[in-house]
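Lab notebook, design round three. We kept the backbone fixed and only want residue identities now. Task for the bench partner: fill in a sequence for the structure below.
Input structure tokens:
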């Protein structure tokens, strides 16, 4: 019998160097972002976000978007879900439920909702892959690096 994808790749992801792991998942996170932004633009003739979110000056925006939001969202959308639900439901169901809640946190418009759902699923899957260092750290780093790149590319 052939091993499933998770049986084949999960051990390698768990043992991967943190920097490589974060870089891999940041790249993976850009795939649905690109697709959803293109589809939203094709269907609505508008950009997916409808404009940049600004929190005061650039330093406040950076702190909020690249540090505070990733820490808070990792806590509420991954940490709490895996900590409290893993006794009752499978990791794959937690990933989907967590992604749904993550997308509700990002309910700017329909296109962004779907973008955030896939982003949340990727972040939750990355959380489920890690044991050491703590999955919270690697998942928050993925989210933070991604948001920082988006801030730089879309000022």
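Proposed sequence:
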């Amino acid at each position: 019998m052939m091993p499933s994808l998770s049986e084949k790749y999960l051990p390698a992801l768990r043992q991967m160097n943190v920097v490589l792991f974060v870089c891999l998942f940041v790249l993976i996170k850009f795939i649905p972002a690109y697709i959803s932004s293109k589809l939203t633009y094709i269907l609505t003739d508008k950009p997916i976000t409808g404009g940049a979110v600004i929190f005061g000056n650039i330093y406040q925006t950076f702190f909020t978007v690249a540090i505070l939001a990733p820490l808070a969202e990792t806590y509420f959308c991954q940490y709490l879900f895996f900590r409290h639900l893993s006794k009752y439901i499978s990791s794959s169901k937690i990933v989907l439920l967590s992604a749904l809640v993550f997308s509700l946190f990002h309910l700017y418009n329909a296109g962004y909702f779907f973008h955030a759902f896939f982003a949340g699923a990727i972040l939750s899957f990355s959380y489920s892959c890690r044991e050491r260092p703590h999955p919270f750290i690697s998942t928050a780093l993925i989210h933070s690096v991604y948001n920082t790149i988006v801030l730089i590319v879309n000022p």
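Keep this in mind before ordering anything: The longest helix spans residues 58-85.
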